[in-house]
Amino acid sequence: MPLIFLPIPDCRLTPTGNLSHNVTHSRRIRIKAMLIRAEFDIQFHLPAPLTVIAMLRLHPSLDPCLQEPETLTIEHIDLETRQQLAGREYLDGFGNRCLRFNAPGGALRLAGSSLVRVNGIADEVNAGAPQHPIDQIPDDVLQFLLGSRYCEVDRMLEIACGLFGSTPEGWQRAITIRDWVHNHVQFDYQAARPTKTALDVFTERIGVCRDFQHLAITLTRAMNIPARYVTGHLGDIRIPYSGPGDFSAWYEVYLGGRWWSMDARHNVPRIGRLLMAVGRDATDVAITTSFGSSLLTHFYVESNEVDEAGEKVALPLASAPATATIPPSGVTI
């Protein structure tokens, strides 16, 4: 059966409850919608009062897909009392939804939930997507060719050219880079550290989700393809259970006039990515940034397909539950 690849989802529903997609030449394709419930509960111990910036809500582009108001609770917990903390929301320079607030010392809890209706299509593929000449790249996209905190494009130019200089431009070059990173870097939570850069990952050949993406982004930019870092929810949806949930990182490349999702860690088309924030690298999209000392004490994140009654949809060949793992201290996803 031939596959049909669609543009960015249009979350409007038809009268029958299907998602409606407008594609080229006014063709309309209807795809059965799916519901995804994303939720989190993160807690810290704060030795002293501090200011926090949180990126825990979904990206504004998903607002039309929300099936109920998105929730975000900020609580200071002191013995038996819980105090709701007020914050101020704003959009950063990349269009991400941020919340800034002041927290007193003690226990801090951040919890939230969202219910989103999306299509059941895996990551889109377009083998013919062309690479843009530099002078045709939009002004707001040019910044994603430049080096950044974790992506040392200048230091990896020669490496990238040696590895990928002879590959065909465009989509083929982008996926060749993605595949190379996936095949040459080993995933290990214990290898995480907050200062690890793309060049470190290339040298050590080990890291966590964000390290895979940083290396792929850097090599992609070095070959003059704009690439940006993405964070969001990516649960085990229609695949076997892989362990306790977490926030996820992937990246996007700009080809053929639009952004395409890439994932150097998983390296297979996935269903159910829920975008939270985009940026140059992990610095721009940290889930929480605290201006002072904080200790992570509890970490729960889940993203699951649910039915119309709100019940989790069973996974195929689910394995036994594993013990929850808290990411190493100081590491943002």
UniProtKB/TrEMBL annotation:
Question: SUPFAM superfamilies, alphabetically?
Answer: Cysteine proteinases
The Transglutaminase-like domain covers 201-266
| Protein name according to UniProt | Transglutaminase-like putative cysteine protease
Which GO molecular function annotations are given, in alphabetical order? peptidase activity
| Top-level division of the source organism's lineage | Bacteria
**Keywords (A to Z) from UniProt:** Hydrolase, Protease
User: Does the record's keyword annotation contain Protease?
Assistant: yes
BP terms from Gene Ontology: proteolysis
| SMART domains referenced in this protein's UniProt entry, alphabetically | TGc
Q: Which Pfam families does the annotation name?
A: Transglut_core (PF01841)
Q: Which residues form the signal peptide?
A: none
